[in-house]
């Protein structure tokens, strides 16, 4: 049984291929971690570049785009340029403490309130009684160090970042 044939003087059938859905309709950006503040920042940046109304926040996890294509630039190129737009996202404030060796890891904009911690020969005082004049000049981190009957003392202002606390302890 033969499965092919030749038609003398045959023709060619041509037809339009279906276009991708994003070419005709609006596009929705879905956030992996829904956050209303981040979605709003994304929409604001897109509106500032492509004009008011180019982006709309639907919910904390979705931003709908209605972009106008600039002359000579296909829609896929416009969408690809979105990746280059700078959007500032606040880092989550997290503190992880390893109970075995006492290692502290902090991320984001973690700040420390009033506290006093003593370990070995070192005292870390944050806030509380900082009005007394320290015997030593402040370091780059804003800390003051002074001896306290053979023990070291580090004094800092409340609201200081964890990074500056670490710098003061190592400086």
Characterization of this structure:
The protein is of the alpha+beta class. Helices cover 18% and strands 27% of the residues. It is built from three helices and eleven strands; from the N terminus they run βαββαββββββββα. The longest helix is centred in the N-terminal third of the chain and has 15 residues, at 36-50. It is elongated, with a radius of gyration of 30 Å. The model is unreliable at 130-138 (pLDDT under 50).
* Mean of residue pLDDT values: 78
Distance between the termini: 89 Å
What strand order characterises the main sheet?
Answer: 7-8-10-9
Low confidence ranges = 130-138
Tally of separate helices: 3
Helix content: 10-25%
Could you spell the SSE succession in H and E letters? EHEEHEEEEEEEEH
Radius of gyration: 30 Å
Strand content: 25-35%
| Overall 3D shape | elongated
Biggest β-sheet description: 4 strands, mixed
Structural class: alpha+beta
How many extended strands?
A: 11
Please give a handful of descriptors for the protein shown.
171 residues, alpha+beta, four-stranded mixed beta sheet, three-stranded antiparallel beta sheet, 3 helices
Q: In brief, what are we looking at here?
A:
The chain is α+β, with helices and mostly antiparallel strands.
Give the SSE map.
Elements: E1 27-30, H1 36-50, E2 55-59, E3 62-65, H2 75-81, E4 94-97, E5 104-107, E6 111-112, E7 115-119, E8 122-126, E9 144-148, E10 151-156, E11 160-161, H3 162-170
């Amino acid at each position: 049984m033969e499965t092919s044939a030749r038609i003398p003087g045959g023709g060619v059938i041509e037809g339009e291929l279906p276009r991708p859905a994003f070419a005709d309709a609006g596009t929705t950006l879905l956030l992996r971690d829904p956050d209303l503040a981040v979605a709003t920042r994304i929409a604001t940046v897109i509106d500032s570049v492509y004009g008011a109304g180019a982006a709309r926040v639907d919910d904390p996890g979705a931003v709908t785009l209605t972009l106008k294509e600039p002359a000579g630039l296909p829609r896929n190129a416009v969408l690809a340029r979105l990746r280059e737009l700078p959007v500032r996202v606040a880092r989550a404030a997290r503190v992880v403490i390893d109970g075995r060796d006492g290692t502290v890891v902090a991320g984001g904009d973690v700040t420390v309130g009033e506290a006093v911690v003593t370990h070995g020969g070192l005292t870390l005082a944050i806030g509380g009684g900082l009005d007394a004049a320290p015997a030593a000049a402040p370091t780059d981190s804003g800390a003051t160090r002074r001896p306290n009957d053979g023990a070291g003392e580090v004094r800092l202002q409340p609201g200081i970042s964890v990074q500056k606390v670490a710098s003061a302890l190592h400086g």
